[in-house]
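Entry for the shared binder. Reason: the reviewer on the internal report wants the predicted structure included alongside the sequence.
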Amino acid sequence: MSAAEAERAAYLQDAQDKALHLFEEIEQTLIRPGISEKELSNAIHQLGQERHGVRTHWHKRVVRSGPNTLLPFENPPDRVIEEDDIIYVDLGPVFEAWEADFARTFVLGDDPDKKRLRDALAPVWKTVRGRYHENPDMTGEQLYDIACEEARKAGWEFGAGLAGHLVGLFPHERIPRDKTTLYITKGNDLSMSTPGKDGNKRHWILEIHLRNADNTFGGFYEQLLTV
């Protein structure tokens, strides 16, 4: 790895580390019953600005609870978080011009099925990451298929049509109307090790979306795959 590439990777890792600290404070101080998803999103925005130096997000803040956790990319009606709820938060904060993309799932109360799904997310993510690193030249479609396979092995359904995307210096590489080659998804037959248009190594986010067999709730976990 060149010195320049090592520096880019370090900036991305630093952005993710800062996002982790933000999420720790979100869990400790903001997530509670009786607050709506929109209210929680606004509180997260304020917290990020006041305590973590976040001035912009490269994608909209996503807060989902209960059945809305099945709709990661839609815009469901606002919902009030309940006592025994499952919630996930997905943020794309920009730290000193470098993008993070980070999602975690939280459970309020003692519902064993919701806790089991929450606790399955990180192990599935790690297994999929391990299989990627066995063959980092695989295509985006191949890694998507692996994510779906590992979700089923763990006893869940994979809950989205993609399992990740590019990330980098804000704003990261985009191709207008391209919903395939910059994503870990069906139809992406490019090697994930293909350099970006600037000639640099591309960095990827790996997303794990799980949902239960009854299709009543889901969970979401994402972070850097390639650093």
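Summary line for the report: The first helix runs from residue 3 to 29.
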